[in-house]
Amino acid sequence: MRTLNRTIVPMALMGLALGACERPPVDSVQQGYRGVGSVHVDNPRRLAVEVEAVAAALPDLPPPNDFTNAPPAPAGTFQNVQVLNHLSEIEFNRTMAALTAWVAQNVPDDWPAEQRGCNYCHVVHDGVADFASDDIYTKVVSRRMLQMTQTINSQFANHVTDAGVTCYTCHMGAPVPQNIWFYTDVNQPLRHYLDRDDIRVQSNVALTSESTNRSSIKQTEYTYALMLNMSEALGVNCTYCHNSARWSSWEDSSPQRLTALRGIRMVRHTNMEYLVPLQPEWPDNRLGPMGDGPKMSCATCHNGLWAPQYAAPAAKATGWPAMYPPSAGFVPPAPVGDTTAAGTMGDGQ
Fold first, then answer.
1. Do domains 43-168+311-329 and 179-302 have the same CATH topology?
2. How large is the C-alpha radius of gyration of the chain?
3. DSSP-based three-state secondary structure for 192
4. How far apart are the C-alpha atoms of 218 and 210, rounded to whole Å?
5. Backbone angles phi, psi at 301, to 5 degrees
6. N or C, fewer C-beta in 10 Å, the chain?
7. Contacts of 91 (CB under 8 A, 6+ apart)
8. Superfamily for the 43-168+311-329 domain
9. Alpha helices (runs of H) in the chain, residue ranges in sequence order
10. Nearest to 83, CA basis, from 171, 142, 170
11. Cα(103)–Cα(146) distance, rounded to whole angstroms?
12. Considering only CA atoms, which of 337, 334, 320 is closest in space to residue 87?
């Protein structure tokens, strides 16, 4: 019996250890210098299932057509249009249908009918939609979010690439994105996504001072917590961006570190220029425990993936001029399918 136990226990422990590992094959991509752990590892079986699930969840929307890049609708076609007045009438209606799918498709089951679909942003009076009205906060917020998306696609293309982003990138069909954050305390690490710029621990100089070297256990915990948040936001490890032999060296880091820096600058800009100024518009049920409105981080777009929706075709490839400012000179893909459209919604953004 004693000999049997000596055999069973090690085998059981080995089984537990192997159960925590990925069975082959596993793909790895060299991100930086050899020997410093700059390797991104993926399981192709699991990755294929996840990519398929992401693609299946994408809304089925009308493709670009001959009117996607047509001249703007004549003056007087719509009322109170402030952001999307560079679109043709048909493209405007196509965009309104897309916004509904991107933001208001997956609403809670207990929501009343008057808050679903187009009515999520548009007011209904006595059963009649008043598309021009700004009396509902979601209309005001969505207009500002469209401006934010246009800014991201035009001014931060070095991060979002030529593909661009849409409302779906963050919302994924839901009225509220999954990964937003609120204030907790003044030393909250997520404040780096807003207005704190004191992330560095390793100093470039030897002498210790308040301004040049803030190396301490407290500062290290702050930086470590922020780095973990970024790592989890993209579903990668630290060496996706850093060289494990020289963490602070930009010259020895992978190209992904520069991409990440551009992303952080983008998040800080969008929070300070678009989300924080919306504070007066949020109702009480949209505020955090300290009374502030929602803010974004890396996870808001990435949702745990190294690229949002695994780099599925977005604003540019699927032809959405509404996601770019008029000055961007957006050129959509070639028209596909039926180019006809019916009806007008009267107003939008």
1. yes
2. 24
3. helix
4. 14
5. -90, -40
6. N
7. 67, 68, 69, 70, 321, 322
8. Photosynthetic Reaction Center, subunit C, domain 2 (1.10.468.10)
9. 2-19, 44-57, 89-103, 137-155, 157-160, 167-171, 217-234, 255-270, 298-302
10. 142
11. 12
12. 320
Q: Which amino acid is present at 263? A: G
Q: Which segments within 55-139 are labelled E, that is strand?
A: 123-125, 128-130
Fold designation for 179-302: Photosynthetic Reaction Center, subunit C; domain 2 (1.10.468)
With beta carbons less than 8 A apart as the criterion, state whether 305 and 46 touch.
Answer: no
**CB–CB of 266/260 below 8 Å?**
no
Tokens 């210790």 belong to which residue?
208
Tokens linked to 279: 């504070």
Q: Could you state, in order of their start, the residue ranges of all structural domains in the chain?
A: 43-168+311-329, 179-302
Cβ–Cβ under 8 Å, residues 292 and 182: yes
How many residues belong to the chain? 349
Walk along the chain (349 residues) and give the pLDDT tens digit of each residue: 455 555 555 555 555 554 556 666 788 787 777 777 777 788 888 888 999 999 999 999 989 988 888 999 998 899 999 999 999 999 999 999 999 999 988 777 777 766 788 888 988 777 777 899 999 999 999 999 999 999 999 999 999 998 899 999 999 999 999 999 999 987 899 999 999 887 877 766 666 665 566 667 888 888 899 999 999 999 998 989 998 888 888 888 889 999 999 999 999 999 999 999 999 999 999 999 999 999 999 999 999 999 999 999 899 889 999 999 998 878 777 765 544 433 334 444 5
The structure's pTM equals: 0.84
